[in-house]
Amino acid sequence: QVQLVESGGGLVQAGGSLRLSCAASGRTDSTYAMGWFRQAPGKEREYVAAIGWSASSAIYAHSVKGRFTISRDNSKKMTYLQMNNLTPEDTAVYYCATRLGAPVSLPDLYDYWGQGTQVTVYS
Length: 123
Fold this sequence. Notes:
Layout: E1 2-7, E2 10-13, E3 18-26, E4 32-39, E5 46-51, E6 59-60, E7 68-73, E8 78-83, E9 92-100, E10 112-113, E11 117-122
Parallel strand pairs: 2-11
Antiparallel strand pairs: 1-3, 3-8, 4-5, 4-9, 5-6, 7-8, 9-10, 9-11
């Protein structure tokens, strides 16, 4: 079993930044890919970014590329999502997830999920 706990969400003005964190525990290691997803009210869960064991494996949704950066510290079992130049369209509950294998964008391929952290961007 793997447990994931997100933190770092909050209320931020458009143009601002937030850094989300995801702490993993249990049977997980660097062979697990980590992903960030988000879900806005009335919308389906949306892929944001994912990363494998190395920084070079990071992939991003088109809507966040160039503004968000995913990273991980394998020694601490932590994954981060640095979000810059936020817009109201980024408002959502953000979830981290993990799977054994390569980073992918399909949420159904992830095995474990955190409880989510709310990000609200106001204009």
